[in-house]
UniProtKB/TrEMBL annotation:
GO biological process: protein maturation
Top-level taxon of the source organism: Bacteria
Name by which UniProt lists this protein: Hydrogenase expression/formation protein HypE
The organism's taxonomic lineage, starting at the top: Bacteria, Bacillati, Actinomycetota, Actinomycetes, Kitasatosporales
Family: Belongs to the HypE family.
Length: 329
């Protein structure tokens, strides 16, 4: 299970199994989506599979999660998402009403994100060999001219901005999966981020890095960026927006919010001279209303993420080994 968690074991699987098997320059970029040239066009292409349990949770379900997840991966390259594929893997015996509900949520989420589902596939496996419904979605989008967003572009002096409060999706899943109550309902943040990225690019095309911190949370995304760029990242713990209910749940469960998955947030590395204007544009968009500066990219401690604590000390924020919360997407 740890190899699917977006942490050290996932990176090991990529490095030792998949990269040698498929090795090519595009794959080596290790972005949320692949940036490809096709004739005169620059395309972003991404694929993802969804095995979340339960299928429906506060704030969403597997259908809108699949659409938003793929749309967001495309947007993290600066692309304008355009078209999706969707494949269903169904377990024998799953009620058709459940399949219909998932399909309808996919259609509604695609319409909200401004994309179309143009092709797909369906397979059925025997009872006991699945978990109701698994999904795979792939997507393509156009990257505007002059946009070059990738983890290798993080540069010392960049300002690190997160688009809103973190940890909500993972805790929402845990609350319904294990019947836990944390004083108030935690609702998943699942949302399409293409419009937010367009608002940021309207300020400047020179955004260095965008990532949506899903599996492994914000900590995993920042570590991946630090490693890819050979720079360090310095956070301020108190600047990271964590909802009170998420903080309480993490305290109860022994989790660090930095490692909890998100499905409607992005982290951006922005040149300092553009940071104020980009932050203002983010806060003017519904999906960035609570955006906050949480740190900076530094030349010190290359490849490492360090957080300044409220007591005046520092702590290393490592890449997680495996998965704190399995089956959250």
């Amino acid at each position: 299970m740890g190899h699917g968690g977006g942490g050290t074991l996932s990176a090991e699987l990529m490095r030792e199994v998949f990269a040698p098997a498929y090795g090519n320059a595009v794959l080596a970029g290790l972005g949320d989506s692949a940036a490809l040239s096709l004739g005169s066009a620059r395309l972003a292409f991404s694929t993802d599979s969804y095995v979340v349990r339960p299928l429906f949770f506060p704030g969403g379900g597997i259908g809108d999660l699949a659409v938003n997840g793929t749309v967001n991966d495309l947007a993290m390259s600066g692309a304008r998402p355009a078209h999706l594929s969707c494949a269903f893997i169904l377990e024998e015996g799953v009620p058709l009403a459940t399949v219909r509900r998932v399909a309808q949520s996919i259609g509604a989420a695609a319409a909200a994100a401004g994309v179309t589902v143009v092709t797909g596939d369906t397979k059925v496996v025997e009872a006991g060999h699945g978990d109701g419904v698994y999904l795979n979605t792939s997507g393509i989008g156009l990257i505007p001219e002059g946009v070059d967003i990738r983890p290798q572009r993080a540069t010392p002096g960049d300002v690190v901005i997160v688009s809103g409060p973190i940890g909500m999706h993972g805790i929402a899943i845990m609350s319904v999966r294990d019947g836990l109550e944390f004083g108030s309902e935690v609702v998943s943040d699942t949302a399409p981020l293409g419009g937010l990225v367009e608002a940021m690019l309207a300020v400047t095309a020179d955004l260095h890095v965008l990532r949506d911190p899903t599996r492994g949370g914000l900590a995993a995304s920042l570590n991946e960026i630090a490693t890819a760029s050979g720079t360090g990242v310095a956070l301020t713990d108190s600047a990271v927006p964590v909802p009170e209910a998420v903080a309480a749940a993490c305290g109860f469960l022994g989790l660090d919010p930095l490692y909890v998955a998100n499905e409607g947030r992005l982290v951006a590395f922005v040149p300092r001279e553009h940071a104020d204007a980009v932050l203002e544009a983010m806060r003017a968009h519904p999906h960035g209303a609570h955006a906050a500066v949480i740190g900076e990219c530094v030349a010190d401690h290359p490849g490492m993420v360090v957080a300044r604590t409220g007591l005046g000390g520092t702590r290393v924020v490592d890449l997680p080994l495996g998965e704190q919360l399995p089956r959250i997407c």
